[in-house]
Amino acid sequence: MALTFKKKAAVLSALVVVLAAVYILTLVFDPENRRGDSFAWLDPSLVVMADGIEIYGPEGKTELRRKNNVWFVMDNAAEWPVKQERVRDFFALLTMRDSYSRRVSSREGIEGLGLTEDRASRIIVRGGVGLPLLDLLVGLPDAVGREIYLRRTGWNQIYSADDNFSQFTESKPASWYDLRLFPEISVEAVQQTEISLTGMESYLVRRSGRGWIIPGNESVSLDSIRIDAWLRWLIEAEGEAFAPNPPEVIEGTITFRLGDGSTRTLQAGPIYEQRTRLVMISGSPFVYVLPEHMLTLLLRPASFFFNSSS
Asked: What residues contact 27, with CB distance under 8 A and at least 6 apart?
């Protein structure tokens, strides 16, 4: 008799769970609950006030702060530069007036769609003295994974929209880092390049008309296409992380002289942990971690640029 009662209790419990799920799904997918509202989560006029961003997601917390109109990622006591265009994309998403489907406004819906404060991902934009300009909860994706459920903290109303939010809530803090070595230099601006590496003879290449020469050894024919491709690759190169301290010694340098007379210098230290090197860029306070094989490809001997007929 007791066994029969336990079986009945288990069946009833399972039925309650199923009915609750059906209830939530009915509320969510009922056309009556899919009315559209057009609005922006964040008033565009508030962006100029924003000086802090906090994102909580599966990868932990990402914290950004704005100083002198430039955004940085906060990492304990360190501040790392941010891809400013990624911040602009972030605010463009929040301030864009869009049509959001109104779903449910019940406690069951909030819990069933992962929009409770202890389960949801979260986006907080702060301004002024730390007051939240926006506190947005990002819940579960829909059945087909194309939409996401959203709720402003303190609201009961749930909305759904195309999932453009997970790219921010599910990314690691490092996805915001601006690890470009030379973000403000173009290939066309480089007039001269000097390369030096311990154990390798230093050399210099300079523009001459539409090509390149080695001053003092102009008889050597250089492959201009290869030099331009190498320059482009170097200028577009990115580190894989930031390091807290500079290298103790310098083993290799690459110096650009630009058309305006200014120079930029890359300084590379010896082999670091896990086959990497620490790199510093003149004019930047940051130290970058680059894979050793990348530096090997960048610190080429002069013969690499010779025409095959030379």
From this structure: 33, 103, 104, 106, 108, 109
- Closest C-alpha to 111, from 140, 134, 146, 153: 140
The pLDDT tens digits of the residues spanning 189-248 come to: 999 999 998 888 899 999 998 899 999 888 899 999 999 999 999 999 999 999 999 999
Q: Read off the tokens for 84.
A: 């400013």
Residue range 187-305 in CATH 3.90.1280: no
- Angle among Cα 90, 96, 100 to the nearest 5 degrees reads 110
Where exactly does CATH 2.60.40 map onto the chain?
187-305
Mean pLDDT value of segment 291-296: 89
Cβ–Cβ under 8 Å, residues 242 and 250: no
Decide: 172 and 227 in contact? Cβ < 8 Å.
no
HEC string of the chain equals CHHHHHHHHHHHHHHHHHHHHHHHHHHHHCHHHCCEEEECCCCHHHHHHEEEEEEEECCEEEEEEEECCEEEEEECCEEEEECHHHHHHHHHHHHCCEEEEECCCCHHHHHHCCCCCCCCEEEEEEECCCEEEEEEEEEEECCCCCEEEEEECCCCCCEEEECCCHHHHCCCHHHHECCECCCCCCHHHEEEEEEEECCEEEEEEEEECCEEECCCCCCCCECHHHHHHHHHHHHCCECCEEECCCCCCCCEEEEEEECCCCEEEEEEEEEECCCEEEEEECCCCCEEEEEHHHHHHHCCCHHHHECCCC
Q: 11-39 pLDDT, tens per residue?
A: 444 443 333 343 344 444 444 444 568 99
Phi-psi domain of 76 (left: phi exceeds 0; alpha: psi -120 through 50; beta: other): left
In the block, tokens 């790219």 appear at 167
